[in-house]
Structure formats: structure tokens, C-alpha cells
């Protein structure tokens, strides 16, 4: 009996072990299949990517990542010479191979829909939105800038000019004699208030709390992106949220949202009164455009932060680059001052939209600064969502970031004769001596295959017309009222700070200003 029991028990255990082994085997096979399914797209992606020629080394190495951070400009210039008419890949600082597109393929790429090439998905990586939390797909902002702000510039220009005059006097010191000015910080303060006048109206744009929120949110966001880019990609999910920069950004967001919330709520409540006179500013245009969409008040406040960043950051960098260049090319100040004065006299002391268009030498100078000291080495950055076979037969797999080497194009003497030389009136001469097409292609705001500072295609910067007017008025005011030069007898322009694909003016550097007698 005991023998039978023992035999029965052994049989049961064998069956149990057999069942367990079968379960483990099944689970193992399922796990392998799952892993294979997960790996296949990656292997497929890598095999397609491997067919494209590569400049430099693999994206996986820290040595290559550091090389990109320190020498991206040279890499793109050398890559352009080597692969002028071909797609190639380059290891970026994000642990990915970016695919660089030659200029000749741009027209066919611009025709592709957003579900094939995504601008917002590319910005997600550029601005590290996983950690910075900025919204890259706010259709409300884009629509309002295109359909409300740009058409309003004609009537807004006198208001912008008045605010520029107020701010230049407010933020620059007396300058009765040669006076040192940390110009980047000064420009940021001016742009914050001038843009604020258009975004939130006359009263709030001068509020110290609004100005603190606007300028410091912009600086904190840039500091956060810079800090994240310095981290190794595999460390970012763990380390990025804990960096001092991201923590400071979260605090700034909370304070800014708390400040902007009452403004939006007050406007929404006031709109219920049929006799209420609506303000003529960006906040109101966005509220009107989205009426009935039930967008939370907090979302409007966040839209304001995105607007603030977009307006202050690029405008301040561009204006600072112009002034740094002007101080080191003083021979241009006289002719520019003469043009500005004569145009203003012709328009009875006003700076109208037409007057701004007639400042062709100033427009040319600004455009040449953007060509030589362009804020980024690349443009037309897109995330590929669906694989593309190009007209030259090369295939770009989904998931990759593509970009165009704009700095290298600006350095190509085929498109810009004597490209190594700074010629402030290069575009003025082309406009004056050329056809109607030449006149159109050589304006500061123009976007095309050889003019990529504001992007290209349907996602070219919609706010560039507002930015151009604002920059032109600020620079014109400074040229009219001040002599400008480099300090300490320096004649060479300050070098740019180049990190990865970014090229920025040094924010700590000073210029000398003296009021014109």
C-alpha cells in the first residue's frame, strides 16, 4: 500500500514537473518571440540606416558624441563638401544618427505631408520636451500668429515703435559718454516688454512680475535644454528630472502660470458683458479664436509661455548678433543711419510698414549677419514617421531625424560669391540690380532653399514678420541715437559660443555706447 502511494505520489510529481517545464518552455518561447518582434523593427531600422554613407563614427560612442558637441560646425562643413549631392548620416549628441539632406532634394521633401515628415516630433528632441514639458503642437498659437498677428502688423507698428522708444531709454544707461553695456541682457529686457505689449497689452507689459516671468522663463528653458544635452542619452531618463535646471524650470512655470491665470480668467469673464471693449492683443485674439473650445485657463497660460519663449529667445539672439557685428564693422553705421533718417523723414517721422520695407540697407545688413552668424548649423529638422524613397534612390527609414546643413549652404560660394567675406550690403545690391525675383529672394524674412534661417516650407517660422519688424525698430533706434563700438580698443568681433549645432552670441560680453550729439 505504501509502495503504491509512493508510486502514485512520484507520478503526480512527475506530471507536475512536466507541466511546469512545459509552462516555462512556452513562456520562454513567448518571451523570445516578443523580444524578436521588438528587435526586428530596430534591426530593420539599423540595416536601412547602414546603407547610407556615414560621416565620422558611430552614434553609440561617447567619444563621437563629444566630438559632435565640440566640432559640429566643422563636421557639417566637411560633410557638405564630401556628400554635396547625396544623403549621409552623422552621429549627433543625442545618441542617434541624424540624416543630412542635400539642398537639391529639398523641393521634393517640402511636398510631403505631416504624417510622413513631422516638425513637432523633431522639436520634441531638439527641445527635450520629455523633460522640459513644452507643448510643440499648439495649433492655437500657430493659427493666431498667422491669421491675427501678421495681418495686424500694419496697425501695430506705431505701437511697437512707441514701446521700442520707451524701452531703449528705460533699459540703456544715460551714455552721455562712452558707457559699457551688457547688450544681450539689455536686449532681452527690451524684447520682453515690446513683445509683451503685443501679447498682453499696455498695462501688464510694464509689470515687473510679468517681465521677470517672461525673461527668466526663457533663460531657464534654455539652461534646461543645455543641461540635458550635456548628459549621456542613457542617463537622461534618470538624471534629467533631477537636474537643478529642470527643477528651477518647474518652479518658474508654476509662478508664471499663477501670474497669467487671473489675466485669462478676467478676459473670459469680461467677455460675457456685450458692452465690453475687447483689447487688441494676442491674448484676446487667441481667446476669440478658440471661443467654444472649452480650453482650460491653465492651457492659455501655457500658450503664453510658449509665445514668450519663441519671441524673446530668437529675437534677442538675432539682435545681439547684429549689434556685435555692427560694433566690429563701424564703417556701416554712417550709411545705415543716413538711410534710416531719410526714410523716416519721407514718412513724416513715422515708421510705417512701408517705411520698414524701404530700409533696404538695414534689411540687407540684418540678413548678412544671419547668414554669417546663423543661430544653428542646420535647418528643416523633421522626424521621419513613414519611410521615404528619394528621387536619387536612397531610402530613409521611419524614426530618423533629417536636417539640412544650412550653415554649409551659406558658406557655399556657388550661392553666395565670396561667401567667406562679410558684405553687409550684399543683399541690398542684389535687390537693386536684379529682377523682381531677386528683390523678393533677398529680404530678411525670405525663406527658400538657400535662405533657411527661418526654416523652410509650410512650417517656416510664422512669427518671422513680427520678429523682423521688432528687430529692425530696435536696431534702427540704437543706430539713430547711439554710436557703438567694441570696448578696450578691440576691433575683432566677439566669437560665437558653439555647442553642437547651436551658435550663440556670448551673453556676458559688453559693447560701448555713446549718445549721438
Automatic annotation (TrEMBL):
It comes from Macroventuria anomochaeta. It comes from the Eukaryota. The lineage of its organism: Eukaryota, Fungi, Dikarya, Ascomycota, Pezizomycotina. This is Cytochrome P450 monooxygenase-like protein.
Amino acid at each position: 500500500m505504501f509502495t503504491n502511494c509512493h508510486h502514485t505520489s512520484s507520478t503526480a510529481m512527475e506530471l507536475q514537473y512536466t507541466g511546469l517545464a512545459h509552462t516555462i518552455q512556452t513562456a520562454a518561447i513567448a518571451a523570445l518571440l516578443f523580444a524578436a518582434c521588438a528587435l526586428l523593427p530596430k534591426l530593420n531600422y539599423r540595416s536601412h540606416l547602414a546603407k547610407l554613407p556615414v560621416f565620422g563614427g558611430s552614434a553609440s560612442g561617447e567619444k563621437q558624441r563629444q566630438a559632435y558637441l565640440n566640432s559640429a560646425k566643422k563636421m557639417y562643413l566637411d560633410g557638405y563638401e564630401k556628400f554635396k549631392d547625396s544623403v549621409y548620416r552623422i552621429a549627433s549628441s543625442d545618441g542617434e544618427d541624424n540624416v543630412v539632406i542635400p539642398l537639391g532634394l529639398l523641393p521634393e521633401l517640402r511636398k510631403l505631408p505631416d504624417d510622413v515628415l513631422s516638425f513637432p516630433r523633431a522639436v520634441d528632441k531638439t527641445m527635450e520636451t520629455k523633460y522640459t514639458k513644452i507643448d510643440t503642437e499648439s495649433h492655437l498659437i500657430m493659427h493666431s500668429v498667422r491669421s491675427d498677428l501678421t495681418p495686424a502688423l500694419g496697425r501695430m507698428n506705431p505701437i511697437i515703435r512707441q514701446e521700442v522708444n520707451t524701452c531703449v531709454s528705460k533699459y540703456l544707461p544715460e551714455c552721455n559718454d562712452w558707457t559699457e553695456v551688457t547688450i544681450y541682457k539689455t536686449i532681452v529686457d527690451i524684447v520682453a516688454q515690446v513683445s509683451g505689449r503685443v501679447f498682453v497689452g499696455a498695462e501688464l507689459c510694464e509689470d515687473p512680475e510679468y517681465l521677470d516671468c517672461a525673461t527668466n522663463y526663457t533663460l531657464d528653458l534654455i539652461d534646461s535644454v543645455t543641461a540635458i544635452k550635456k548628459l549621456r542619452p542613457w542617463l537622461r531618463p534618470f538624471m534629467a528630472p533631477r537636474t537643478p535646471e529642470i527643477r528651477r524650470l518647474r518652479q518658474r512655470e508654476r509662478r508664471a502660470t499663477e501670474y497669467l491665470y487671473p489675466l485669462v480668467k478676467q478676459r473670459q469673464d469680461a467677455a460675457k458683458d456685450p458692452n465690453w471693449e475687447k483689447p487688441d492683443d494676442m491674448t484676446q485674439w487667441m481667446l476669440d479664436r478658440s471661443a467654444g473650445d472649452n480650453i482650460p485657463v491653465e492651457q492659455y497660460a501655457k500658450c503664453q509661455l510658449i509665445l514668450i519663449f519663441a519671441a524673446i529667445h530668437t529675437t534677442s539672439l538675432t539682435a545681439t548678433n547684429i549689434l556685435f557685428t555692427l560694433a566690429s564693422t563701424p564703417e556701416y553705421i554712417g550709411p545705415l543711419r543716413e538711410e534710416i533718417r531719410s526714410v523716416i523723414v519721407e514718412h513724416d517721422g513715422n515708421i510705417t510698414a512701408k517705411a520698414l520695407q524701404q530700409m533696404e540697407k538695414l534689411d540687407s545688413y540684418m540678413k548678412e549677419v544671419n547668414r554669417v552668424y546663423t543661430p544653428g548649423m542646420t535647418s528643416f529638422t523633421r522626424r521621419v514617421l513613414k519611410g521615404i524613397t528619394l528621387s536619387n534612390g536612397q531610402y530613409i527609414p521611419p524614426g530618423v531625424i533629417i536636417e539640412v546643413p544650412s550653415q554649409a549652404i551659406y558658406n557655399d560660394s556657388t550661392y553666395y560669391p565670396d561667401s567667406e567675406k562679410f558684405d553687409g550690403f550684399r543683399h541690398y545690391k542684389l535687390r537693386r540690380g536684379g529682377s523682381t525675383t531677386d528683390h523678393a529672394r533677398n529680404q530678411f524674412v525670405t525663406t527658400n532653399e538657400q535662405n533657411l534661417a527661418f526654416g523652410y516650407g509650410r512650417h517656416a517660422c510664422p512669427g518671422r514678420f513680427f520678429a523682423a519688424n521688432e528687430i529692425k525698430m530696435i536696431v534702427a533706434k540704437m543706430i539713430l541715437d547711439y554710436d557703438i563700438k567694441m570696448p578696450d580698443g578691440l576691433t575683432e568681433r566677439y566669437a560665437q559660443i558653439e555647442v553642437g549645432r547651436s551658435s550663440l552670441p556670448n551673453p556676458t560680453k559688453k559693447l560701448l555706447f555713446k549718445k549721438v550729439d
